[in-house]
Q: What sequence folds into this?
């Protein structure tokens, strides 16, 4: 029996989310963050959001059979806090294929910073499009989709009915691209008016005809527990999404 239900959870608000949003608001070309991307921690709001995820876990009709998480600290913290005292006994695995998209020379730059410091890359991105543009030293969305196809090919062909994945904005969007499936135009159209909110839950169900999107970026558990609902979109190649 293969996986029939897949839950995708974005990590709670991180210190990188806060720094990136503040830099964009202030018009700064650079995001002031000393920590490498893999070590960025949850903000106080993010920890509150992760605790609110427990109420969602407790509301499930059936237990989760397996959990997978990005190796990045903000994702691992989200899952650890959510599982604390929650009625879940599922095995948990860390997989580097679930890491956030790598931005190379554009890391820690705002939209303004990319335009000012790497105008040739800004022009190349406009020419190639968001899906295929690969910053030097970084990854395109197509690159991330490739590693996610590898992960999903293994994780969804296991004798476990339900799987929970805790990862990042771009990872969740590209899992939808792979599983629903979408083409480049459909994905870009979807991302233009959909954002994966922090600590939100997206649910997919496998049917005879393939995967169906049941719920996207649900945050009822945050509202119910009085936790802040935060967005922090990564749509303009801002890091730490």
A:
């Amino acid at each position: 029996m293969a996986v029939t239900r897949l839950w995708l959870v974005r990590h709670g608000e991180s210190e990188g989310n806060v720094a990136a949003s503040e830099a964009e608001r202030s018009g700064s070309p650079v995001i002031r963050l000393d920590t490498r991307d893999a070590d960025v921690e949850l903000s106080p709001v993010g920890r509150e959001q992760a605790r609110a995820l427990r109420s969602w876990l407790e509301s499930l009709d059936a237990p989760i059979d397996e959990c997978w998480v990005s190796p990045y600290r903000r994702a691992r913290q989200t899952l650890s806090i959510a599982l604390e005292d929650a009625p879940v006994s599922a095995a948990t695995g860390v997989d580097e294929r679930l890491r956030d998209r790598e931005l190379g020379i554009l890391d820690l730059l705002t939209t303004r910073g990319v335009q000012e410091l790497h105008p040739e890359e800004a022009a190349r991105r406009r020419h190639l499009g968001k899906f295929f543009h690969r910053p030097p030293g970084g990854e395109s969305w197509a690159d991330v989709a490739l590693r996610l196809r590898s992960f999903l090919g293994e994780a969804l062909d296991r004798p476990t009915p339900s799987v929970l994945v805790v990862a990042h904005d771009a990872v969740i969007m590209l899992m939808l691209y792979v599983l629903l499936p979408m083409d480049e135009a459909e994905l870009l159209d979807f991302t233009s008016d959909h954002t994966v909110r922090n600590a939100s839950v997206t649910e997919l169900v496998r049917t005879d005809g393939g995967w169906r999107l049941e719920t996207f970026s649900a945050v009822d558990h945050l509202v119910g527990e009085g936790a802040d609902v935060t967005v922090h979109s990564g749509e303009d190649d801002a890091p730490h999404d």
The longest helix spans residues 44-59.
